[in-house]
Amino acid sequence: xxxxxxxxxxxxxxxxxxxxxxxxxxxxxxxxxxxxxxxxxxxxxxxxxxxxxxxxxxxxxxxxxxxxxxxxxxxxxxxxxxxxxxxxxxxxxxxxxxxxxxxxxxxxxxxxxxxxxxxxxxxxxxxxxxxxxxxxxxxxxxxxxxxxxxxxxxxxxxxxxxxxxxxxxxxxxxxxxxxxxxxxxxxxxxxxxxxxxxxxxxxx
Length: 204
Prior knowledge:
By secondary structure, this protein is mainly alpha-helical.
């Protein structure tokens, strides 16, 4: 296979995962807005409006650094990977240690209206911080897959993550309420723990 064909094939795979992610996100938005009151859904949209900035800060361009040093030191691939990963890992841990004690303050600062209690908002922020840190930890491993020329594995993992997230969202936001409403088998057990209208399910 020529270099051009290989490059085109890999680019198509990497691009497809991004397109699928954006497409499904667009499809899910009407589901969210129909399932939740605007004041409740604003919790989700507000937190994710900060995501792009915080993700950039946590990764701080380490993916680019990883590829740069990998090209400079191709014989030290493992060391370059380890150094890049552990730097991002430690920065994320420091960020988490710094942010957790101020969760109450952060929640009070960005809380919108009275539609959601302070305690619930703090709970969402804990989920949000966890998601940010996990995303940061995944950045270098995904970059390594690209560097190793393994687009199919990269695509499979990315798509699996997307479809699992979408599947869980559909289950918690649509399937379980439907089962409860129509008293499907297992509905009584679901009622014991399911919280209808809880926006936290969007974070799953």
